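Researcher: I'm preparing a figure for a lab meeting and need a structural model of a single chain. I don't have an experimental structure, so a prediction will have to do for now. The sequence is pasted below. Please return the structure as tokens so I can convert it later.
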Amino acid sequence: MRLPLCTFRTLLFRRQTANQQRRGLSGAAMRLVQFRRQGDEGVIRVGVEQGEGSGVVDLKAFDPSMPSTVRELLELGDKGLECAQRALASGQCVVERSNIHLLSPVLAPEKVVCVGMNYRDHCLEQNAPIPTEPIIFSKFPNAITGPYDDITLPSESQEVDWEVELAFVIGRRGKHIQEEEALSYVAGFTVANDVSARDWQMKRNGKQWLLGKTFDSFCPLGPALVTTDAVKDPHNLNVRCLVNGETVQSSNTDQMIFKTAALVAWVSKFVTLTPGDVFLTGTPPGVGVFRKPPVFLKKGDVVECQIDQIGSIINKVV
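Model: Understood. Here is the structure written out token by token.
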């Protein structure tokens, strides 16, 4: 059956719009990083990985007009990401991995938004009901640390726990964002460890979660901000956490109750989202506090968080 021309044009527009929303900002598949060159510890640089674990194209060396942080790059919108894409395609200004110290892909975001009880299998682990709306809390930005930096055990807590999480980063400003448009506000995805002091989260300070979640170094993040086009389906990724080489968490993001678009739409009802805002989307089962007996991190432990297509972060506990 032949479609009327007006119907065909409507369907074509909807398809183009859907593709644009799925792509996010620039439609470019990239792995954005922040780093310092060895011997130049005071200067932050933005780079584009040539591949996971490969050399990094120094964006500012390629184009001196470009900013020095990923947050500032995102604030430029498509202009910044298109420049990053050109830099990657050029193959120029490459810094060898051995000559850099990799930082968190986002430093000093305006907001670190966290979602509790967002995996069905994690709810079952603790015999908790499935939430009917997202449970939102936050970390302060001081908690963010690099993908290979140390986690510092605070003397105030004896019950520090691990939580591997898929994180995403907002790419453009928005308020009251519709769910069907929400993915176009997402710049990309990264790996997070929502390190948690369970005694402060569950027993002290009126059982408010904030203090137990926001000690310094309690949010390792990285290794890269993987743009939305480089991730085939963020809600079908294997997620793992290993402590001293032993797998303690293993699940899939298909267990998420509230997906990325729903979280963006929900949170934007209450606050304006801005480029660089970080969302931690919840953790699967296997955390230490619900083990029998409970298990907590100690000095010398090494925690590795892995998510397919994004990478892994490895942090020593000190």
